[in-house]
Write a structure and sequence with these properties.
With about 450 residues, this protein is mostly helical. It is about 85% helix and about 0% strand. The protein is built from 15 helices and no strands. The longest helix has about 40 residues. The N terminus and C terminus are likely disordered.
Length: about 450
């Protein structure tokens, strides 16, 4: 049984603590998916070329976003572990180092993305028509400007979540998404800017969010961890190494996983606009179905990281099982709802009947299998990462992506001539491999207490 008396404050999480952490994360994840859907819906009124361009580049952007998110994950793990070990000053220093590292990396990525936008699109989606190509290039250049702002927001959000305060990052996220949606509506329906009408609001909204969360984190000096601005300008390699120990393998795993998804989408893009658009809409609906699962995955970092810092294996194991169980509940319920009302959701999009029919099939494949496999494929590995077992999760994910998600997609889609359906069937095979390995690793106990670099402890 969990013990909830004061001796365990800062070490263990009561049910109330978990609710306060998870519910704002669910709302924040829901808003992110809802805004993504609104982007696709609004840009669909600008034509198939526009929605195809946005959906394709979003896959490229996800590679960058996942890389920046990996740094934030590394920072969140380290900060949570310091909190669990009751080392507040070290936790604050780790927060400052996370900010400077994320900003520096994102600036470099942003510059490269703008300069090489044309060759990136040509390399990944060279067989698309000129109208879609131009939409892709414009959207990539504009959204790349927002990467440093997004990195700052992610770092600030990681600081708050590490302390168990996900409510603040949720409020900032609400502000960011309101600005984004309002900007999308103005850009598409009032100014008739097409792709730029959904790209520019992303830059503005992320910029506002970055400023707001940084100011809040710096002013909140009474919190367990706050952002010391003067420490941001001090380079502490010992703390950076701790963050990168988690961040680099996670970054390689996440970014190459997204690269694999881009490669898979490039396969789908060769099947024509119907398959591209159906894939984009299905991704939106499926994202809505698993958004609460994503929230549990983020919460896992804070909870297990705190247990690891305190050196409490039994509580860590207990919370892993508890959060994975919650993960199943928050996947199954939305999955049933989406499958039951998918025709209504799909009808919102202004697309052809053939696209709607294919979208329905893809949603059935994803949500039907997600109820069984998604939590252990994507929530459980965050527990392993929080236990510093990052190399194992990286190797399994990369192998599974290369062999099952990409190679098998290519084989099934082309040999059986079933297009995107074959690609999504290969995704299920990938999930089966990932989940079986992560479950085995957790049961073995080998994920616990992997050594970190000792500097800064």
């Amino acid at each position: 049984m969990l013990q909830n008396d004061k001796r365990y404050i800062g070490k263990l999480f009561s049910n109330k603590d978990l609710r306060l952490l998870i519910i704002p994360l669910i709302i924040e994840q829901f808003l992110a998916i809802a805004v993504g859907m609104s982007d696709t819906i609004m840009v669909s009124f600008a034509g198939d070329a526009a929605v195809s361009g946005v959906s394709l580049v979003d896959m490229v952007n996800n590679v960058i976003i996942s890389l920046l998110a990996a740094l934030a994950t590394g920072g969140a793990v380290v900060i949570s572990q310091f909190i669990g070990a009751k080392k507040r000053e070290d936790a604050c220093m780790a927060a400052a180092q996370l900010e400077i590292m994320a900003f520096a990396a994102s600036v470099i990525i942003s510059i490269l993305s703008v300069i090489f936008a044309h060759p990136i699109i040509a390399l990944l989606f060279g067989n698309i028509d000129n109208e879609v190509f131009d939409a892709c290039k414009q959207y990539l250049i504009i959204t790349s400007i927002s990467f440093p702002m997004l990195a700052i927001y992610n770092s600030g959000a990681a600081i708050y979540r590490s302390t168990g305060d996900s409510k603040t990052s949720m409020k900032v996220s609400i502000l960011m998404n309101i600005i984004n949606v309002a900007g999308n509506a103005i850009g598409i329906f009032v100014l008739h800017m097409g792709v730029a009408g959904v790209a520019i609001p992303s830059v503005i909204s992320r910029g506002v969010a970055a400023v707001v969360i940084t100011v809040l984190a710096a002013q909140n000096k009474k919190a367990i961890v706050y952002l010391k601005i003067k420490e941001v300008f001090k380079l502490r390699m010992d703390f950076m190494r701790r963050i990168l120990y988690i961040g680099i393998p996670s970054g390689i795993e996440n970014s190459l996983f997204q690269v694999g998804r881009v490669a898979v989408v490039s396969i789908i893009s060769s099947f024509g606009r119907t398959e591209i658009v159906a894939n984009a809409i299905a991704n939106n609906l499926d994202g809505l179905g698993v958004n609460m699962g994503n929230a549990i995955s983020i919460a896992m970092i804070t909870v297990i990281g705190r247990c690891v810092g305190a050196g409490d294996y039994k509580e860590a194991k207990y919370y892993v099982k508890k959060l994975v169980f919650i993960g199943y509940m928050v996947i199954i319920i939305p999955a049933i709802f989406i499958l039951g009302f998918q025709n209504f959701f799909i009808s919102i999009y202004k697309v052809s009947d053939a696209t709607k029919e294919l979208t329905s099939t893809l949603v059935w494949i994803h949500m039907g299998m997600a109820m069984f496999l998604w939590p252990v494929s994507f929530i459980l590995p965050n527990a392993l990462r929080a236990g510093n077992d990052v190399r194992f999760t990286m190797c399994i994910s990369l192998f599974s992506m290369a062999v099952f998600r990409f190679a098998t997609s290519l084989y099934i889609a082309n040999v059986f001539h079933i297009g995107a359906i074959g690609v999504w069937c290969a995704m299920v095979i990938d999930w089966i491999f990932r989940s079986s390995n992560f479950v085995y690793r957790f049961i073995s106990g080998k994920w616990w207490h992997k050594d970190l670099p000792k500097e800064g402890i």
